[in-house]
């Protein structure tokens, strides 16, 4: 039969199922197919910390949301147009996010009395009329998959496990996605077990064919490619982009890279990725703890490597003393904090921006460091290079504040030309720098950057000792002199302030906005989407987004002074707002949310509309 | 390979311009002098030697050596030195630490450096007390020790540092004494020649807070009866005219001290520091009691196992050998790997 084809400009699909149902993989594949088609994309994985929570329960639900469009988009979407619910728990956990009229594809095989009872459904929502406001498509995903694989040489269990590929096939048909990359992916993934390659491809094709033949799906959709700048693209998560940025920093600095890391969610993927690229001269060490991880990175930096440690908030707390040592030693070091919801273990797989205070202030003594934050998954690549640039040029620890939202979310990335990346080469000290021509003064500073020489062991004639004790200016000898300590403390602060960072750019297309929205890090997308929506409705609002949080752009005070109201949305209780109010005496309006999820564009739009209209 | 050029360095070359600031009479002076006068023997240029320390009296050591040096933070020297040694196999990296630094706050890093077999020479100055914080008991202080923080006596059982290191499967484990320069230097020599982690416990006197802690091992009247000088390949006897010996009693797990006259010569254990199984060296480490009787000094264990540094470097080299193109070309290839699409 010929199906009707309808054009859409954007779609949000959420795949939801049990932790063991392979929803992350399904979403990832759908995203990859969609990227191949040239749509703009933004994704939001959302999964529990437990590897396998009890099957069929609400805490065990894992989901993956993908937003794709024929224009450039900024967020994974507020509300799904389509929910794929692999079991009753997935339906119950996600129904509240669906607007009326949304499509729901349910795996009816899992809607058994027992599974319904597990999540507190007295009657099946498929039968009691409670889903009347939605377009429900009941599909026996499991039984149809098993049926389709009857001739395959696989166990019933393996056949059942392929149901996610059936679902992917169905959705790929519905949205006219190219599937060649998925076939290739399955061939790679199950290379060692050809029978699984065949079974999963068969399940995928069965899902596709089901869509084509069943009368339940009468419409097929198309979303045309987005108008995007020319070039080569790939879909990338923030953690992958960050790892590539570190590799690029190694290549562009011509230094060996040393990563010290201890496994921690959601940062471990950076360690995994970097451990695969030894050919670039990258050493990865899985240390015995967070402290050893940064200690080893600092030791490597002392020896002339680009030293990096990757972690999340709890790890940064443990690394604080070593960051202070790096402040005193004035050695380059990059500390990546992929933030997650705290305090303590908190919600390890959920996002938050609540480590800003710790990054800025969380050390003993006056211990200033540089702090930067990426705004999107692909921006993690450039943020990593920028962190390395500051660390190497200014001989300072740099904290890079990523978060779970950008780390695991993905978007299309216009691949940069390698030659266009910054030149990060450094000069090690090779000669005595004292006036007598023979003395080496390890704390004699570059007058512009205030950075001290990087004299690595192995350099003849420059033997010197450094340490955590206060040092005398220039000589680096131990000093308890009051005036010297005062001078050194102020100098360490001035060193950070001397870091050159680009001026803050303001986006105000109407040019007459009286309200500025100031954000940092991963809120860029939702804030941008909210501002666009307001502008489309004829309201003026300006957006500025901080990448550099320490030091802040020099024009920030002037920018803030140019608006009647400044609104600061953050996924914390107002940490940037606090700093802005203290430093600039601006009566900024904090807007805060700590639910472990990114802002929706809609809630920001509502809030900003109120400020724009009523001040 | 060409003969290495003799550098003709002297003790003086290893003295830095910094004033040494330990308490007068501290055992650290003797260790510093012994190390400084031993260093020329290595025939390694000073710039390729690095001393890394933690916090404590002993950890001031790097300031006094005219080499590269880092006085780091409490307990973390083995971790910092691991990063340095792993990325810079051309360096000779020494860690100076104390009983509090290495066994209390830094215990984790010590055992992991040892089990990895990082190419570090770890000198643990053991004075069985916290000196820099003015006299609290340490993890090697004897149980019942009365100190500022334990007026009723310590309730903590002490660590035996050598047993701990052997439990962590250290490949080189030795003990020596601050006041015996000749023996100290012989142990340093063996440690320096070892590829991998070399763990050296140095009994060191704190004359302010724990004076005389090892007196019986130093006093001319007692030391021969107390000390067991281990020598590879030699039967283990000690005391006046070798009147005591070490035997492995049948049926038992460990080693015991006997009167030499009461056993047949073939029962006396012949010291072999190369025994692969750590149980033998562990048994040796258990010989002394809290009264310091039967204290072995010398090299307990010296076995060969690939060092972490070598393993890491060979992985890097193997990966590099397979790579083609400039790093920039490789990076461009990596960026475009996987599923890409082009918009024209």
UniProtKB/TrEMBL annotation, chain A:
Key word Oxidoreductase present: yes
Domain of life from the UniProt record: Bacteria
GO MF assignments: magnesium ion binding; oxidoreductase activity, acting on the aldehyde or oxo group of donors
Domain called Pyruvate flavodoxin/ferredoxin oxidoreductase pyrimidine binding: residue spans: 257-474
Pfam families given in the database record: POR, POR_N
Chain ranges of the Pyruvate/ketoisovalerate oxidoreductase catalytic domain: 20-207
InterPro entries: 2-oxoacid/accept_OxRdtase_asu (IPR022367), Pyruvate:ferred/Flavod_OxRd (IPR050722), Pyrv/ketoisovalerate_OxRed_cat (IPR019752), Pyrv_Fd/Flavodoxin_OxRdtase_N (IPR002880), Pyrv_flavodox_OxRed_cen (IPR002869), THDP-binding (IPR029061), Transketo_C/PFOR_II (IPR009014)
One GO term (biological process): response to oxidative stress
Keywords: Oxidoreductase
Protein name per its UniProtKB record: Oxidoreductase
From TrEMBL, chain B:
UniProt cross-references to CDD domains, sorted A to Z: TPP_OGFOR
Record's keyword annotation contains Oxidoreductase: yes
UniProt keyword list: Oxidoreductase
Keyword Metal-binding: no
Gene3D superfamilies in UniProt: 3.40.50.970
GO biological process: cellular respiration
InterPro entries assigned to the protein according to its UniProt record, in alphabetical order: 2-oxoacid:Fd_oxidoreductase, THDP-binding, TPP_enzyme_TPP-bd
Any one GO molecular-function label of the UniProt entry: thiamine pyrophosphate binding
Pfam families cross-referenced by the UniProt entry: TPP_enzyme_C (PF02775)
Domain Thiamine pyrophosphate enzyme TPP-binding per the UniProt entry, residue ranges: 55-202
Name of the protein: 2-oxoglutarate ferredoxin oxidoreductase subunit beta
């Amino acid at each position: 039969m010929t199906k009707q084809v309808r054009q859409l400009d954007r779609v949000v699909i959420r795949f939801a199922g049990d932790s063991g149902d392979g929803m992350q993989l399904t979403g990832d594949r759908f995203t990859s197919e969609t990227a191949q088609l040239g749509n703009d994309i933004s994704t939001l994985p959302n999964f529990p910390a437990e590897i396998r929570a009890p099957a069929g329960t609400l805490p065990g639900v894992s989901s993956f949301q993908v937003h794709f469009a024929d224009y450039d988009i900024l967020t994974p979407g507020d509300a799904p147009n389509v929910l794929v619910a692999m079991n009753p728990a997935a339906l119950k956990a996600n129904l509240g996010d669906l607007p009326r009229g949304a499509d729901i594809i349910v795996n009816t095989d899992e809607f058994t009395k027992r599974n319904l009872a597990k999540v507190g459904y007295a009657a099946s929502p498929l039968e009691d009329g409670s889903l009347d406001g939605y377009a429900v498509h009941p599909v026996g995903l499991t039984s149809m998959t098993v049926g389709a694989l009857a001739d395959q040489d696989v166990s019933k269990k393996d056949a059942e496990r392929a149901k996610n590929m059936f679902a992917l096939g169905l959705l790929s048909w519905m949205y006219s996605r190219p599937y060649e990359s998925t076939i290739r992916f399955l061939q790679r993934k199950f290379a060692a077990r050809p029978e699984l390659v065949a079974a999963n491809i068969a399940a995928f094709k069965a899902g596709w064919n089901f869509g084509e033949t069943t009368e339940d799906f009468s419409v097929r959709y198309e979303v045309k490619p987005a108008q995007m700048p020319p070039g080569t693209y790939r879909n990338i998560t923030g953690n992958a982009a960050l790892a590539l940025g570190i590799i690029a920093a190694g290549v562009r600095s011509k230094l060996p890279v040393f990563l010290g890391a201890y496994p921690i969610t959601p940062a471990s993927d950076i360690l995994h990725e970097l451990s695969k690229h030894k050919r670039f001269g990258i050493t990865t060490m899985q240390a015995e703890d967070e402290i050893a991880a940064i200690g080893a990175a600092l030791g490597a930096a002392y020896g002339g490597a680009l030293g990096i440690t990757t972690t999340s908030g709890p790890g940064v707390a443990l690394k604080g003393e070593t960051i202070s040592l790096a402040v005193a030693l004035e050695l380059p070091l990059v500390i990546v904090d992929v933030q997650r919801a705290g305090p303590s273990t908190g919600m390890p797989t959920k996002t938050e921006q609540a480590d800003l205070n710790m990054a800025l202030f969380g050390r003993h003594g006056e211990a200033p460091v540089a702090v930067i934050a990426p705004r999107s998954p692909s921006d993690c690549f450039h943020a990593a290079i920028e962190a390395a640039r500051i660390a190497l040029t200014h001989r300072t620890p740099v904290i890079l504040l990523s978060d779970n939202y950008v780390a695991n979310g993905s978007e299309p990335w216009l691949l940069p030309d390698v030659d266009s990346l910054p030149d990060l080469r450094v000069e090690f000290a090779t000669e005595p720098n004292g006036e007598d021509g023979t003395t080496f003064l390890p704390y004699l500073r570059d007058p512009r950057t205030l950075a001290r020489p990087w004299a690595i062991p192995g350099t003849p004639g420059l033997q010197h000792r450094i340490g955590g004790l206060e040092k005398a200016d220039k000589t680096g000898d131990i000093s308890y002199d009051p005036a010297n300590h005062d001078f050194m403390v102020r100098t360490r602060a001035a060193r950070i302030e001397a870091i050159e960072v680009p001026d803050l750019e303001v986006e105000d297309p109407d040019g007459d906005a009286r309200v500025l929205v100031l954000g940092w890090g991963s809120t860029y997308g939702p804030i941008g989407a909210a501002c666009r929506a307001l502008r489309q409705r004829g309201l003026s609002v300006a957006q500025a987004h901080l990448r550099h949080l320490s030091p802040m752009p020099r024009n920030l005070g002037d920018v803030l002074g140019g608006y009647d109201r400044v609104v600061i949305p953050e996924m914390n209780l107002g940490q940037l707002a606090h700093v802005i109010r203290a430093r600039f005496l601006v009566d900024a309006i904090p807007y805060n949310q700590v639910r472990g999820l990114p802002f929706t564009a809609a809630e920001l739009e509502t809030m900003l509309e109120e400020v724009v209209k009523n001040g | 390979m060409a003969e290495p050029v003799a550098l003709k360095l002297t003790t003086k070359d290893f003295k830095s311009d910094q004033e040494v600031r330990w308490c007068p009479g501290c055992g650290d002076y003797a260790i510093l002098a012994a190390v400084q006068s031993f260093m020329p023997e290595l025939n390694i240029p000073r710039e390729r030697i690095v001393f890394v320390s933690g916090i404590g009296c002993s950890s001031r050591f790097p300031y006094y050596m005219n080499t590269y040096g880092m006085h780091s933070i409490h307990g973390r020297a083995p971790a910092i030195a691991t990063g340095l040694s792993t990325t810079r196999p051309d360096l000779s990296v020494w860690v100076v630490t104390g009983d509090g630094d290495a066994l209390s706050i830094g215990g984790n890093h010590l055992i992991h450096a040892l089990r990895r077999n990082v190419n570090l020479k770890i000198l643990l100055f053991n004075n069985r007390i916290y000196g820099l914080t003015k006299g609290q008991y340490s993890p090697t202080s004897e149980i019942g020790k009365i100190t500022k923080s334990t007026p009723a006596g310590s309730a903590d059982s002490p660590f035996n540092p050598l047993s701990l290191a052997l439990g962590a499967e250290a490949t080189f484990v030795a003990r020596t004494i601050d006041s015996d320069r000749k023996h100290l230097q012989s142990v340093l020599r063996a440690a320096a020649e070892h590829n991998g982690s070399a763990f050296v416990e140095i009994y060191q006197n704190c004359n302010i807070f724990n004076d005389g802690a090892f007196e019986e091992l130093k006093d001319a009247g007692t030391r021969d009866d107390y000390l067991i000088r281990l020598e590879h390949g030699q039967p283990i006897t000690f005391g006046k005219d070798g009147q005591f010996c070490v035997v492995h009693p049948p049926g038992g797990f460990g080693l015991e001290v006997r009167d030499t006259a009461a056993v047949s010569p073939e029962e006396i254990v012949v010291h072999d520091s190369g025994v692969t199984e750590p149980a033998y060296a562990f048994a040796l480490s258990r010989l002394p009691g809290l009264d310091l009787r039967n204290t072995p000094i010398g090299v307990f264990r010296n076995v060969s196992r690939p060092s972490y540094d070598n393993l890491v470097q060979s992985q890097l080299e193997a990966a590099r050998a397979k790579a083609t193109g400039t790093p920039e070309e490789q990076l461009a290839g990596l960026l475009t790997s996987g599923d890409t699409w082009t918009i024209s």
